Amino acid sequence: MPTIDEELAQMERDIRQLKVEYDQYFGGGRKRPPTEIEWRIDMTIKRYAERGGELKYGHRFRFNNLTQTYAKYKDIFRKKMQQKEEGKIQRHFGAAAKAIEAERAHKQEETSAGAASGAFRVTCSEPERETEKVDQLYQAFLQAKQLAGEHTGKLSRSSFNEFVRKKTKDLQKQNNCKDVEYVVEVVEGQVKLKALVKS
């Protein structure tokens, strides 16, 4: 029987995966919307809504945040579904992710997720502690590669985390700086991941 922490962590992963798969669907990379993941998230929400009284404050706070994020995404997906059915949806990188990127940029002042320019930026100083940022960077990199039609089979989250951790440490040492900015961008159809020193 999974713990509440494990279930909430799974729900968080599912919400992120749902966003990725919906972006692929609206971008023309998937044939069907990811209804299976949606169903799984809905079941978790239903179960915890019924057991609300059992949750400690920290769990309830996290659960409520996840539920709100999910509701926001659902609303965006619903509108995009309407557009898709009416044939209004644009199929190119940036357009599919723009609405959700705007949502994310709004929540994170320091992450300027420039969907319009096709670049995703995130600043790290201690990647081992900033797992959420590294995770977003990984998702953006993966998604950009998929949208560019590049092979992602060899890409793994653990090796990516290790790369970011090592690269950040090396650059901090070489340049005696605290922050390193990572940029995912598409240059002449190829996805690049750049590490820039923030002075």
**Dominant shape:** globular
Please bin the fraction of helical residues.
55-70%
Percent strand? 5-15%
Order of helices and strands: HHHHEHHEE
Would you spell out the secondary-structure blueprint of this structure?
Layout: H1 4-26, H2 35-50, H3 57-85, H4 95-107, E1 120-124, H5 131-147, H6 157-175, E2 179-187, E3 190-198
Antiparallel strand pairs: 1-2, 2-3
Helix pairs in contact: 1-2, 1-3, 1-5
Tags for this entry?
199 residues, mainly alpha, 2 domains, three-stranded antiparallel beta sheet, 3 strands, 12% strand
Brief overview:
The chain has helices at residues 4-26, 35-50, 57-85, 95-107, 131-147, 157-175, and strands spanning 120-124, 179-187, 190-198. It is mainly alpha-helical and 199 residues long.
